[in-house]
Amino acid sequence: MTTKTVSERFFGGEEGEFVVKEIDEVMLHDGNAPLIFDDMEGEDIWDPDRVTSVVDHFCPPSTVERANFVKELRGFVDEKGIKDHLEFEGICHQVMCEGRVLPGELVAGIDSHSTTYGALGAFGIGFGSSDTVEILKEGKIWFKVPETIQVEITEGENGTDIALSMLDKIRYDANYKTIEFIDKVGLKMDDRLTVANMAAETGAKAALFPPDKITTRYLEKFDIQSEAEIELSKEERCFEKVDLSVKEPLVAVPHKPYNVKPLSKVSRKSIDQVFIGSCASGRLSDLRDAVEILENEDVHPDVRLLITPASKRIEEKALKEGLLEKLVNSGAIVLNTSCGPCPGIDKGLLAEGETCIATQNRNYPRRMGPGEVYLANAKVCALSAIEGEIPEEV
Amino acid sequence: MKCRARVFGDDVTLDEIHPGKYFSLDPEKVVQGLMAGIEPEFYKTIKENDVIVAGRYFGMGSGRESGAWAMQLAGIEMVIAESFSRYMFRNCVNRGIWPLEVKSVLDKVSEKDMLEVYPEKGSLILEEGEELFFEPFPPKMEKIIKSNICQRNDDVR
């Protein structure tokens, strides 16, 4: 008997084979859900209890058209019997990982960063709107069984730096594949969430951290006991294997997330905006890192520092811990939990010629407006906010 | 079919194929966004039988289906690229647009070249007559593209 890869075992077919597989959970958000309303008219959802609906893109809406999308989503949710509808509760991928997604599940999200659920050992896979309509009606969808690539993390502790190192090495060559992480470092869950989230930029279909003690401890916070295990694919299957050893902070320079350089090799570029947030970041460890740099310091007068906690739960913890007070005292603008500036939706777009450094996952041309975006960890971003330019070291 | 190539480069992002500010349910607004991140008002220049030709990893980034929808609205029936993001690939299939993966196509095709493309045969004939070959879709996938959404699970079985 040949040794099957994790993906072959999970999907029940050989690499490249087309299979149909049942979905355990679905995530909808206001940014893409409007595209399914027409096709779902008169249709029942196969199991509304497996669907979570999140308002995070237009939250709160900045135009009447967007206000209508959100209103229609509320109507949709009522009509279809979806009980788990969240507004102002957090960014979709974060709230999905706060007691919803379980290890070993197949979770279909209407968003490309659904790979995030792999931090918990779930196959988190993103879909467009037509596929999502099919999933909502049937509870299943077709897949091509993905190939495998393994990423071994041997040094480093910051999720953003590890993710940038992964992008530097893989670029988008994980397209259509499953990434299996071998975490030799024992990353904190916050950092795993960042790495699995940014795995989307490699093109990966899914990105899995096999559940371990760190997963178990994290899930216990949400009263979840899980004993799911994932046995990694065996090396005799001859897939690509990449080692990541991160020794210094990294920066993705404009305009692609894989244009990665060590911080020390990036020129001291003047900065107009700093953003710590998005579904790639804005978790407690990022906020703590920012405070470590910003406490008793002031944001540079020419810089606006924008911070969005990844969820309301995180915001409340950060309040209790005194993190937000310290950040505000330093001159940070704390925005409500939402997607905000990252995809250029609202609150923090760039003018022509302006530059932003952000903890987010994408720095594509014109994504945040006509300016340019650098990607880096929360400490580098916080120090940039103080100095008004990208620092040489942290 | 005979078609005219509209050529873009490598690593074209979905944010360029369909910038977020064109996100809407109004087909007129959606079609205006097509390729607007690279060439504003591109949609006005589209003629019947225009196809998009691009390099590696066409549609990287977001999974918003607005990009494929805008192509569908503009009457684009094929996208020929060296590779696709999985979102762009699936969204094209679901919108009845052929996402054809053809090696080194970007090196061989220039803007407004006339091409002959036969997706079922896996054949692309360049303006000067050279024929490029690509892997045709399995019949089940072909059926999905031609049926343009729905009954997909049944087709794959």
Question: Summary?
Answer:
Chain A has helices spanning 6-11, 64-80, 92-96, 129-138, 159-170, 189-198, 213-220, 284-294, 312-320, 323-330, 378-387, and strands spanning 18-22, 25-29, 51-55, 84-87, 106-109, 123-126, 140-144, 148-155, 178-183, 206-208, 240-245, 250-252, 260-262, 273-276, 304-307, 333-334, 355-358, 372-375.
Mean pLDDT of chain A: 97
Radius of gyration of chain A: 20 Å
Please tell me the overall pLDDT of chain B: 92
Described by its quaternary structure, the protein is heterodimer
Identify the biggest protein-protein contact and residues per side: A-B, 41 and 38 residues
Percent helix range of chain A:
25-40%
**Architecture (CATH level 2) name of chain B:** Alpha-Beta Barrel
Rg over CA atoms of chain B: 15 Å
Looking at this structure, what is the CATH superfamily of the largest domain in chain A? Aconitase, domain 3
| Unreliable residue runs of chain A | none
As a percent range, the share of helical residues of chain B equals: 25-40%
Could you state the CATH homologous superfamily of chain B?
Aconitase, domain 4
Task: Please explain how this structure is put together.
The complex is a heterodimer of chains A (394) and B (157). Chain A has helices at residues 6-11, 64-80, 92-96, 129-138, 159-170, 189-198, 213-220, 284-294, 312-320, 323-330, 378-387; strands spanning 18-22, 25-29, 51-55, 84-87, 106-109, 123-126, 140-144, 148-155, 178-183, 206-208, 240-245, 250-252, 260-262, 273-276, 304-307, 333-334, 355-358, 372-375. With 394 residues, chain A is of the alpha/beta class. Chain A has two domains: 6-243, Aconitase, domain 3 (2-Layer Sandwich); 250-387, Aconitase, domain 3 (2-Layer Sandwich), CATH 3.30.499.10. Chain A has a five-stranded parallel sheet with strand order 4-3-2-5-6. Chain A has a five-stranded parallel sheet with strand order 16-15-14-17-18, with helices on one face. A four-stranded parallel sheet of chain A has the order 10-9-8-11, covered by helices on one side. In chain A, α5 packs parallel to α6 and α8 (284-294) runs parallel beside α11. The radius of gyration of chain A is 20 Å and the shape is globular. In chain A, 56% of the residues are buried. With 157 residues, chain B is an alpha/beta fold. Chain B has a single domain, classed as Aconitase, domain 4, CATH 3.20.19.10. Chain B is built from seven helices and seven strands. In chain B, strands 4-3-2-1-5-6-7 form a seven-stranded mixed sheet, with helices on one face. The interface between A and B is large, with 41 and 38 residues.
